[in-house]
Amino acid sequence: MKGHASLLRRRLLSGAQAAARGIVVSLLLIAGACAPVPVDEPSPIPTSTTPAGAGETAAPPATVPLLRDDFSSNGGGWTLFDTPEGAAFIQQGELYLEDRGRGVGVYSQPVGQSWDDVTVNVLVRQIEGSQDNWMGVICRQQSEENYYLFAISADGYYLILKVENGLPMPLAGPALSEAINPGRATNQIEARCDGTILTLNINNSLFVSRADATFSRGAIAVFTDAVAGGATTAAFDSFTLLQP
Length: 244
Fold this sequence. Notes:
Layout: E1 9-14, H1 15-19, E2 26-28, E3 50-51, E4 64-69, E5 81-82, E6 86-91, E7 94-99, E8 104-108, E9 118-129, E10 133-143, E11 146-152, E12 157-164, E13 167-176, E14 187-194, E15 197-202, E16 206-211, E17 219-226, E18 232-243
Parallel strand pairs: 1-8
Antiparallel strand pairs: 1-2, 3-16, 4-18, 5-6, 6-7, 7-18, 8-17, 9-14, 9-18, 10-11, 10-17, 11-12, 12-13, 14-15, 15-16
């Protein structure tokens, strides 16, 4: 079983710091599997882990575009870098993130941007490395120790995580889902932060929602992280940022 509160402190390499030659910020990401740490149970809202078409009505689509990027160039202003710990680069119409197995997860974000209510749509696929990984979206990131994280893994798990003042709290998962295309197949992730409602939509087949009012505004990012200390590479495409 994939651990959630073997939530060890890992260092997450951002493009902004890498561009300044490696002032690497600390973020809490998921690493390894060990005994769970007791946490307060979040209050689920009615639309929770329900397959589409099984009595569940999906939330209405977001309509106002804030940013679209097909990664044919770096028009979105993403942080790009190449260090011994990790890399972010654009290649053949995708944004690649490499965790090179040195205990450093990797993320990239549009530089200098901050939003409140947003919906992020993106395609992601694993390119190589450990399938015991996480890849997905960070939303409302206020600092390196305050943010929401929406993730899937190549071995079929999903997770919604809150990190507040450096303390991680799983809001949903990690849990195994057949809605996730495993291995190197492409998955569509929609992460929605709308008021106090946080929703993860995977391949328009699984909708997981939780309520949390901790963060109301912040940066967005895409990320990848190898759980057990191995290396992993993920590629992102068809990024859309919308206002609900």
